[in-house]
Hints:
The complex is a heterodimer. By secondary structure, chain A is mainly α. Chain A is built from 13 helices and no strands. The relative contact order of chain A is 0.13. Chain B contains eleven helices and 21 strands. Chain B has helices at 19-24, 67-75, 117-126, 132-145, 161-173, 191-208, 219-225, 243-248, 253-258, 284-288, 377-382; strands at residues 29-38, 41-51, 56-60, 82-87, 90-91, 102-105, 179-183, 212-216, 228-233, 236-241, 262-270, 273-276, 279-282, 295-300, 305-308, 318-330, 334-341, 369-376, 390-395, 399-402, 414-415. In chain B, a hairpin with a 3-residue loop joins strand 16 (318-330) and strand 17 (334-341). In chain B, helix 3 packs across helix 4 (132-145) and helix 3 packs parallel to helix 5. The A-B interface holds A 171, 173-174, 176-184, 187, 191-192, 195-196 and B 75-77, 96-104, 106-108, 110, 112-114, 123-124, 127-128, 171-172, 175.
Amino acid sequence: xxxxxxxxxxxxxxxxxxxxxxxxxxxxxxxxxxxxxxxxxxxxxxxxxxxxxxxxxxxxxxxxxxxxxxxxxxxxxxxxxxxxxxxxxxxxxxxxxxxxxxxxxxxxxxxxxxxxxxxxxxxxxxxxxxxxxxxxxxxxxxxxxxxxxxxxxxxxxxxxxxxxxxxxxxxxxxxxxxxxxxxxxxxxxxxxxxxxxxxxxxxxxxxxxxxxxxxxxxxxxxxxxxxxxxxxxxxxxxxxxxxxxxxxxxxxxxxxxxxxxxxxxxxxxxxxxxxxx
Amino acid sequence: xxxxxxxxxxxxxxxxxxxxxxxxxxxxxxxxxxxxxxxxxxxxxxxxxxxxxxxxxxxxxxxxxxxxxxxxxxxxxxxxxxxxxxxxxxxxxxxxxxxxxxxxxxxxxxxxxxxxxxxxxxxxxxxxxxxxxxxxxxxxxxxxxxxxxxxxxxxxxxxxxxxxxxxxxxxxxxxxxxxxxxxxxxxxxxxxxxxxxxxxxxxxxxxxxxxxxxxxxxxxxxxxxxxxxxxxxxxxxxxxxxxxxxxxxxxxxxxxxxxxxxxxxxxxxxxxxxxxxxxxxxxxxxxxxxxxxxxxxxxxxxxxxxxxxxxxxxxxxxxxxxxxxxxxxxxxxxxxxxxxxxxxxxxxxxxxxxxxxxxxxxxxxxxxxxxxxxxxxxxxxxxxxxxxxxxxxxxxxxxxxxxxxxxxxxxxxxxxxxxxx
Lengths: 277, 421
C-alpha cells in the first residue's frame, strides 16, 4: 500500500504546470472579465445609492428598460413556438433541401448584427423591397416591432440550435411506442415529445431572452433610437454615454449586468433540474 | 378488437395447437411474402409465416438477419416493399401503427420517463378518451397482473429492468392488443435475471393468452420461449418449426449450426446410404431424398455421437467408423472430446467424375477428420476415455442435407458456432 503510494508520488512528482497555469488563467481573466464588471458597480455606486436610484428612475431610463424586456419577451415567445416547430419538422422528416434549410436557419449566428439590422432596413424600410408597398401608417421600421424583428433575426438560431440537438438525440422509440399504443401524431407530440423538451425549451428561452435584451448592433439601425419611444436599454447606455451622462448610463448598465448574471445562474445551476424534473 | 381473456394458468385456452388446427382457424397474425430493401441492401426476401392464437413465435437470427425489420413491419413502424401483414384475417398492411392494435415491447422498454408507472399503463386508455373510472379499474387489474401494485407511484427510472419490462407489457395490455411483439426483450439484462424473466413472461403469456412474437439472437432463449421458432438468415426464412423440430431436424446447414453445435461431414448420397470416403453409412429415408451421386452433408450434433472402447455400440446407434480420442475437456455439465475419425478419401475409379469427399489434409497433416463429441457426466464417469484411446463411433440421430457448392469452403470442417454443447 505505502509502496504503491510512494510510486504514485514519484510518477506524479511536483507538477510546475499546475500553479503556473492556474495563475496565468486567473491573471488573464481578471483584467478581461472580472475587473471591467467590477468597475461598473464601483463607479455606479461611487456617489451613493441615492444618486444611482435617481439616475435609474428617470422616465427615459425606465422606458428603455421596459422596452427591452417587452421586445425580448415577444422575441422569446416567437423563438420557442417556431423553434420547436422548425426543429420538429427538420428532425422528424427527411426531404430534399433539409440540410440547406438547417444551414439557412442557423446562418444569422455568423452574420454581424449591424449587417443584420442593415439588411432588415433594406427589406422593410420605407424604400425597401417590401417596405415600399406598405402604407405610411403601416411602416414597421423605427417602431418597437422592428426591434422585435431584429431580435428574432439575431436570436432564433440560438433557440433552434438548443431544440434541434435535443430532438436529434431523443430516443425515437418513445414516439414509436406512443404510436403503437394508438396515439395520433398530435397526442404523441403533446404527451410524449413535449415533456421531454421542457429543459431545452427553458434553456432556449433563457438564451434568447438574455441575448435579445442586450442586442445593440441591429436594434440601433432599425429602431430609430428615439428616447422614450424606440430606445432600448443598450441604446440608452450608448446615448447617455455620448451625451457625457456617465452616471445615467452606468445605472442602466448595472441593471442589465445584474439581469444577465441572474439568467446565467439559472442556466448554470438549474439546468440539471430542468432536464430531469 | 378481440377482447383479452385473463385465464387461469391451467385455463384450457392455451395448448400449442397442432399444425392442422392452426391452418383451419384464422391466424392471429400472419405475414405474406414480405420483402424489404434499404437502399441497395436487401433486408427481407419473401418471408411468410403465421402466428396462431395464443402462440409464442420466436424469430431467431443473427444481427442483420432482418428480424427487427419484420417486427417493425408488423407493428406498422416500417413499410414493406412487397407483401402483406394480416391480423386476425384483416389486411393491415396500409394501416398506420396507431390503428393496428399491436403491442410492442421495445428493447429499451420505451417507458415515458415523465409519467409514473400507473400513468404509463393508463396512457393507451387515456388517449382513447376512456372514462376515468374505467381507466382506474383497468390499471388496477393490470398492476395486479404484473405484480407492481406497490410501485405504482414510481417513475420508470426508479424501477429495475425487469420491473420496467413488466410496466411495458402492462402498458400494451391495457388496450387489449391483437398481438404482442417483443424486441430482444432480455437484451439489456444480466444473465441470471434473463433466465428468471423468461420464465415469468412465459407464465404471464399463458395466463393472458395473447399471441406473441419474440425476436432474439439467443438460441437458448428461443428454445425456451417459443412454441415455434422461425430461423432467419440474411433476410430469408430458413425454417419454421417447434423447438424440437428445429433443433433435431434442421432443414438447412445454417439452422443446424446456428442452433447449437453441429458436426458436418461431406459425402455422396446413393442407394439409401451416404458414402463418406471409404465409409458407407446406412441412412434410409434420410438419404433417399437425394438423387444417386448427389453431394450431401452429414449433419449431427456432438451429443448424438456414441463412443465405445470395446467396439460394440449400444442399441439404436448406427455405426459410422472408428476413431482416436485426440482431446478431452471437462466442461462442467458434460465432457467434451475431439475424436479423429478414420475417414479417408476414396479415389474415384476410372471414368468416374470427381467426387466431393472427406478432406484428409488438415493443417496438422493428420489423416482423418476431427469431430466434436459430448458425453453426459454419468457416461463419462462410467466408461472413462483417455487421449489416444481407439473407439468405435456411431450416431443415434443425424440429418443428411444437400451440399451447396458455395458452402464448399467450409466443407468437412467441424463448425462449432457457440463454443458450447
